[in-house]
């Protein structure tokens, strides 16, 4: 007949399926009772998440161990571990998970750029935020995760394609920024007709199969809205921070709030809101015209309990004969200077 201390010793090495720590480390074996007349063992176990398929597998494992060692019948009850225990071990799990995505690099910080709808300048914000971070001396990469509406290569004037070396994709480098985009793997701007699971695998490969090297920041240009790709990113990168892009128009801000709420529900910290196309300033009179209305960025920031990082007016980059990059604002351009301020705020928040 099994004794209580024997049962605890048998179960201590068993791993919590969510925290990947032994029940001994998490102190997950909470109660053990034995009915000697019926050779029945009853155990209460605390784990990181209950009522899941992983719990069912763990139940089978524990029952198998106890029956193999002499118990005739086994009764199991599960409860959730205290929040402080979960938090203690979950951060380590998330760090190792993200490090494995980046080939062991645990120092890379992730920033997703999101919006509620298309056409608000989310990709423009992504590439110019990346440029400003680079100008601040940071090593930066971009994943163009807007699978259906990829535009980063064109915005940055990228014409070459990645090469494969030692079974790893080498990202294209432009202006010192490493870039990977779905656009590199599509011929002649063909439409994408893949379904969610296939797209999820592509996003996964952008992390695991690309030789990113040593990056300080990896920016992700997410598709607009709250679809499959955004969900995959939230799952893959628990520590990712987000910048939400909107225009001043109330409808754009209202829709963007959904993307922001999704970030909050998945514990992604929102760094702030960028209000794009905030106004048009006449070169002749200096007067500002609020083409898309006013106040959308401020209202969105209030709804998400965050701040407006910057308000960007409508203005084209300077034309440069020898450089093709239609959406990159030069460092001395007024909007380039605004992006510099936004990037400085982002760095301060990320590294505080």
Average pLDDT, to the nearest integer? 85
Order of helices and strands: HHEEHEHEHEHEEEEHEHEHEEEHEH
Number of strands: 15
What portion of the residues fall into strands of 2 or more residues? 15-25%
Rg over CA atoms, rounded to whole Å, is: 25 Å
Treating each run of at least 4 consecutive H or I residues as one helix, how many helices? 11
Topology readout:
Elements: H1 4-11, H2 23-26, E1 29-35, E2 40-47, H3 53-68, E3 73-80, H4 83-101, E4 109-115, H5 122-135, E5 140-144, H6 152-156, E6 163-165, E7 168-170, E8 172-174, E9 177-181, H7 196-208, E10 217-221, H8 228-236, E11 241-246, H9 250-265, E12 270-275, E13 280-281, E14 288-289, H10 296-303, E15 308-311, H11 334-350
Parallel strand pairs: 2-3, 4-10, 4-11, 5-9, 5-10, 11-12, 12-15
Antiparallel strand pairs: 1-2, 6-7, 8-9, 13-14
Give an overview of the whole structure:
With 352 residues, the protein is an alpha/beta fold. Helix content is 37%, strand content 21%. The chain has eleven helices and 15 strands. It has an eight-stranded mixed sheet, sandwiched between helices. The chain has a three-stranded mixed sheet with strand order 1-2-3. A two-stranded antiparallel sheet has the order 6-7. Strand 1 and strand 2 (40-47) form a beta hairpin. The longest helix has 19 residues, at 83-101.
